[in-house]
# Entry
Amino acid sequence: MKNLLTIDLEDWHQLAFRRATGQLPESGDAVSRQLDVLLGILRQHRTRATFFVLGMFAQAHPDLVLRVSTEGHEIASHGYGHVIVNSISRQQFREDTARSKELLEDISGRRGIGYRAAEFSIRARSLWALELLAELGFQYDSSIFPIRHRRYGIPGFNAQAMRYRLANGLQIVEIPPATIAIGGVRLPIAGGGYFRLMPAWLVCDAFQRVNREDAPVVAYFHPYELDPQRLDVFAANRPATWQQRMRGWGFNLHQNLRRESVPAKLSEVLKKFNFTTCEEFLSETSIFESKTVLSSQS
# Structure
């Protein structure tokens, strides 16, 4: 079975500094060395992935986006400004998403059909975002985590890829990140801190469990998770207050925890399981249509 490998391509140092201080610095060059590691692993295992690229990152580093595309990976949208969907209006969402889509298509020379919201922030009260995505020409979204979490997720949402009819009469495929059910509770398994903290044998066991249910694992990573250097929010820009320094210290502690295990663990997963892009998955798979009509009121 082919699983789906997805990468959120963004500048961690830039976004973490904004979260710590409220100020957005210019994007730096750390992602270049991070991409070197990531793309090297993908080449080694002859694996193509879907890169959900942040628009403002693409504007600062069009050469890196073109490099990813040239190596055969799918370029999809991660929005432009990494804004939380629940925090903006429909018009702001449309403008942010359309801006990113146009920019990425100009750089890659290919039509973008996929989208992932910043921090998986399409939730029950913002399902209207799917309608706007379909209107903009997106064929699939990968933003809805079918779990209960303080920052994201829609508990009880279908955990498998499904085609949904929308309130505006259009359709879109939702491709949720991988989860497994344990004791009636659905848990994430295939990305971020979950992947960093789980031992390799447990990760592989969880992947096999998903595949036994005749479903692909939808894994997600970020380039910063493979950075050969220690992450530091303030590596290039200094904090102005001790409160900002403390917030940055918390980000550093959390994001560096067990991160050194990621390259070897990712290589082991790519060796044992087959992966492809979301675009190829859609072209080769018959996606069932849900009877549910999704809207922000459902």
Remarks:
- The CA atoms of residues 16 and 179 lie 26 Å apart.
- The chain has a mean pLDDT of 94.
- The longest strand covers residues 2-9.
- The chain has one domain: 2-294.
